[in-house]
Amino acid sequence: MKWLLTTLLLPTLALAQPPGQGGGQMDPQQHFDQSKKAMLPLIEKSIPAMQETKSCLNQAKDQATFQKCVEIMIALEQEMQAKMGRGAMPGADKAQSQPPKKIEFNEQNKQNMLKFLDQSILVGQSLKNCFTSSQSADQMQSCMQAAKPKQ
Fold it and tell me: Which of 19, 60, 110, 134 can pair with 139 through a Cys bridge, CB separation 3.0 to 4.6 Å?
């Protein structure tokens, strides 16, 4: 599931990369528009799946139910990887060839996953809101800075 959080952070990482690295020059606005077009649908799809998983986990009382909750996120991760193209993330090829680990049901793991999902949902909502309201990479970065949780 950490792959999902990294995937949700990709838009800000992508926007931080200056266009033109890797051979061809791309206008910064064009780069932002393409990133927005590609990432916004993925973000919009991931938020309800994370909320569904969280709801499922809150009700989980045994290994079988817990595993069904985990499978919701595994399915989403696989779909997102496929839409982004295999190998979009470092180690994605390796991760795809290995079966997902079975996570043992216990209260500690359940609470860790719930905390992770809370953070991921907040990040996803911030990304969605910033992408929706931003018309440029500068606006997106300013919006994400403002959305950062205060420590």
Answer: 134
